[in-house]
Amino acid sequence: MDKRVDDLSTALRGLQSGASLMISGFGNAGIPANLVRALAPMGLSDLTLIINAIRRIDECDATLFDQKRIGHVVTTAFRGPGRTPANFEEQWQRGEVTLDIVPQGTFAERIRAGGAGIPAFYTPTAAGTSLAEGREQRLFGGRMCVLEEALRADFALLRAQKADRYGNLFFRGTQSNFGSAMATAADITVVEVEEISEHTLPPDQVHLPGIYVDRVLQAPRLD
Q1: Residue 5 has pLDDT above 90, yes or no
Q2: Does residue 128 lie in a domain region?
Q3: Is residue 186 part of a domain?
């Protein structure tokens, strides 16, 4: 099946208000900036964002928070740079958006579990801390563990260096980050890439098989 699409509107077809989105990225690597910037003009509201560091959304397109398009955030880091509160922080403090702050390893495993069909798992990470408040805790082997539910999303938005028409992906370095796991845990996976190969990618270059990818869009390179 040819998974190439020609424009952003086609790439994001079916995305509606109230949807949940996983967005790849670690630092600036793997952020699907073109897809993120296409969200605000769609006029959607009450979106749930699942992303490693929420400040990257503000840096990429502050209008998502300026226009109050976001209702809930699951993230490992919500502070902006410096002492001045980021737009998201101010909205959270005013109760305009809800926040689920998650240790990074737990964040990755919750996504992986969602893709593997595992509804929940126990982890010792965060046991006995404020992050465990309101969560079930049990003792295993003498260690207190916290029950964490898997994460799934309606859409996953990824960035890769190269794809072929079948959706097989090649990531450059840190671009892969959480993207591969997110692709398995979303109903629809959309990927912006710098290059679409006319030929099928060699097996040793396939970092994510096309079975997990629904749409591929060629987008400008981000420096």
Answers
A1: yes
A2: no
A3: yes
CATH number at residue 204: 3.40.1080.10
For residue 90, the model assigns a pLDDT of: 85
Which tokens go with 23?
Answer: 């967005």
10 Å Cβ neighbour count for 95? Answer: 7
Residue 108 structural domain = 4-118+152-218
List C-alpha distances in Å: 165 to 9, 197, 202, 215: 19, 7, 13, 9
Residue 80 pLDDT grade (very low, low, confident, very high; cuts 50, 70, 90): low
The answer to whether the pTM exceeds 0.90 is yes
H-type helices in the chain, by residue range?
8-11, 33-37, 55-60, 63-66, 87-93, 104-116, 179-184
DSSP 190: E
103 close to 76: Cβ distance less than 8 angstroms: yes
Token reading at 110: 């919750």
- Specify the number of domains making up the chain: 1
| Sheet with strand 137-140: strands edge to edge | 120-123, 143-149, 137-140
